[in-house]
Design brief:
Two copies of one chain form a homodimer. Chain A is α+β, with helices and mostly antiparallel strands. Chain A folds into two domains: 93 residues, Pseudouridine synthase I, catalytic domain, N-terminal subdomain (Alpha-Beta Plaits); 137 residues, Pseudouridine synthase I, catalytic domain, C-terminal subdomain (Alpha-Beta Plaits). The first copy, chain A, is built from five helices and ten strands; from the N terminus they run βαββαβββαβββααβ. In chain A, strands 1, 2, 3, 4, 5, 6, 7, 8, 9 and 10 form a ten-stranded mixed beta sheet that branches. In chain A, 36% of the residues are buried. The model of chain A has no long low-confidence stretch (mean pLDDT 95). The interface between A and B is medium-sized, with 18 and 18 residues.
């Protein structure tokens, strides 16, 4: 048996997220079905983590063990031939036995995309968050700095999550304006459930003047989910890279 | 009764084209349903022409007569509030009584988008034609010139179309390379069914060395559909503008 990793790019618009579900189309479910067909046995893949319905990935990683009955390049080629057009396996490699896409991950980078037109754009709605209001980028950038470093991010976790250790470290957090779009890039050692979307949601509350950027350290310190009131929509979020 | 025109931007990926069909979701069908709900009577709209399944529009025009029970801006706003996110009415105006989106049209401009990566991109497949082969842009540009002017374009019409006059005039035809994408822009007094896609298909046969660009005048002159063998896929095509 070989320990195999795949790196997957997908448009999450038409999937009920990453994780396999009995009655819904998911990215994991589709990949497992196609891999099982090619390799002639039931394959179970382990992603680096879940992505929600509508969230995209530029490079999600997943690992699985299988009897590799063909060369790696051949398997990648065969897989991409039968995968739907909105999922692409851009890399595939045999890994050391102790590699696991989830447990070996040392961190992740996410991108969050926003477009700023007054009017919504039918071609952007699945790939960006639409922000039609006045932008206060200075206030957003002021707020962003407070997220850097090691904090207990309990405030920025979707309620109902059962995670005991909510301390995470954000290594970098940047924003770039390109024409009428914004692209946030955030890297850290790990992210709680919905953490990126709640952070981005809080920053747009700042842009709209509903939260003062200097309140953010207090909102973090309070460890109270009700302090971060808004979760930005999934369609602007992209898992860019998993770090190993 | 008022004679009203709307200009519509839509992502055609998830529609069976423009034209209303009893059992399938179409752009015309969806707009008519929403307009009828707002205006309280059955509305029938007339597009400038059909677009096929998967074809997009930056500005399709359609006209209809109705009892305008609210100001134009209010109707546009109400309509966009209930239209799905992949359809936007970007303009709405009361027109002279003799205006008709189809019969008043003096010409159209289409865009055709292509991306040139070796590997397919899950985020581009619904919005571009994927050309992974070696590009011969010089040969394409040489071939494009032969389409300019007035010709009988019978060769470049999908077989089975029942149109008596197949003479059309192409006013301009340009291509721009932006990074790894190509954008063709073609304007004319009218286009036969599938004409743009068959012209683009022929140009990529030229790029692949399967057709010599200097054969194009002969392919046009032969008036024989079998001379233009390949129809480029719908997803790269955008109706950019209808000229009145």
């Amino acid at each position: 048996m070989s320990n195999i990793a795949i790196w997957v790019k997908y448009d999450g618009t038409h999937y009920c997220g990453w994780q396999r579900q009995p009655k819904h189309k998911t990215v994991q479910g589709v990949i497992e079905k196609k891999l099982s067909r090619i390799l002639g046995s039931d394959i179970v893949i382990h992603g680096s983590g879940r992505t929600d319905s509508g969230v995209h990935a530029l490079s999600q990683c997943a690992s699985f063990t299988a009897d590799l009955i063909m060369p790696e390049d051949r398997l990648k080629f065969a897989l991409n031939r039968i995968l739907p057009v909105d999922i692409l396996v851009h890399d595939l490699a045999v890994m050391p036995d102790d590699f696991h896409a989830r447990y070996s991950a040392k961190g992740k980078t996410y991108i969050y995309k926003v477009y700023l037109d007054k009017v919504r754009d039918p071609f952007k709605d699945s790939y960006y968050y639409h922000y039609p209001h006045k932008l206060d980028l200075d206030a957003i950038q002021k707020g962003m700095k407070y997220f850097l470093g090691t904090h207990d991010f309990k405030t920025f976790m979707a309620s109902g999550s059962a995670v005991s250790n909510t301390v995470r470290t954000i290594h970098s957090f940047e924003v770039e304006q390109i024409g009428n779009t914004l692209e946030f890039t955030i890297s850290g050692d790990g992210f709680l459930y919905n953490m990126v979307r709640i952070i981005i949601g809080t920053l747009f509350q700042v842009s709209r003047g509903k939260t003062n950027p200097d309140e953010i350290p207090m909102i973090v310190a309070n460890l109270d989910r009700s302090g971060a009131k808004w979760t930005a929509p999934p369609n602007g979020l992209y898992l860019k890279e998993v770090h190993y």
